[in-house]
Amino acid sequence: MRVLVTGGGGFIGSHVVEALLEDGHDVRVLDAMLPAVHPTPPTLPAAAEVLIGDVRDAAEVERALDGVDAVCHQAAMVGLGLNFDDAPDYVGCNDLGTAVLLAGMARAGLSALVLASSMVVYGEGRYECPVHGVVAPGPRTPAALDAGRFEPPCPHCGADLAAGLVDESAAPDPRNVYATTKLAQEHLAAAFARTTGARVAALRYHNVYGPRMPRDTPYAGVASIFRSALAAGQAPRVFEDGAQRRDFVHVRDVAAANLVALAAVTNEEPIATGTLRTYNVGSGTVRTVGEMAAILARACAGPEPVVTGAYRLGDVRHITASSARLRTELGWSPREEFEAGMTEFADAGMRA
């Protein structure tokens, strides 16, 4: 089939483009190629048709949708940003852009969408109190973080909590502007599905890493930030105490998840007509940020990480995925082993 990949010039999008081509699909890319995101224009496979245009431009979207069968929507402004001044840009890129795309799909009669969502819609992950069972701790306060109390307490009794794997049934609780826009994308896509009878798979990516990650940008992921520091001969600077739990998933596994999701939205099962189905995309292996930094530092033969005790308000403490739904319903499983993936990443090219 012919598939439109929005944001196909980006880190994840470019890997999705390659995976689709390898799977025998015709691929069209729509990417604004903004200089702030792509200081150096990306090199995409010659087999992909590339359109330079903004997903917020209805005319460009209409041109990109002509003749396609399905859409993988990867275009988004990512990361926590610098401060709240970034909010209009996040909302414009992520939510207005998604709304323009969905309106164009509705006009074109397209009914198959894979949406790139994110773990950030959950806020904190899954926690269990020995007294009150599964609980949802509130945002951590500056006073607690300044005092080095990084673990969120039980909101009822203040007891220590045990962190676990979050599944798709958890109530969303976005903690920053980026997270809020990603949840809004899901709501828009769900409304689109109900209104038009479309089928939508929303893939909630966990911490994606791998070749072609962006470097030297405030919007880069933590693995990229550490890699850039090591390339400069500097020690990775780890926030808090380094014990934050994350699920690091390789970008090639994420691209493979897009393939199985595409198959699901172009068939009658397991996603019913007129519905959006969410899927966590994670390796299923819990790692700490400090552990990741240490493995990457060894792979780069660089200085050991420095644990700073500093923090970013809006970061969550622990968020790790249960990807059981994606595995059982769509038959996906990760193939990239973490230490081998980090060793590859230590030498892989990064996007300027």
Question: What this model shows, in words?
Answer:
It is a single chain. The protein is of the alpha/beta class and 352 residues long. The chain is built from 10 helices and 17 strands. It has helices at 11-22, 58-65, 87-108, 142-146, 177-196, 222-231, 251-265, 289-299, 324-330, 338-347, and strands spanning 2-6, 26-31, 49-52, 70-73, 112-118, 126-129, 133-135, 162-166, 199-205, 207-209, 237-238, 245-246, 248-250, 275-281, 287-288, 306-307, 320-321. A 7-stranded parallel sheet has the order 3-2-1-4-5-9-14, sandwiched between helices. Strands 7-6-8-17 form a 4-stranded mixed sheet, with no helix packed on it. It has a two-stranded parallel sheet with strand order 10-13. The protein is globular, with a radius of gyration of 20 Å. The two termini are 32 Å apart. The model has no long low-confidence stretch (mean pLDDT 94).
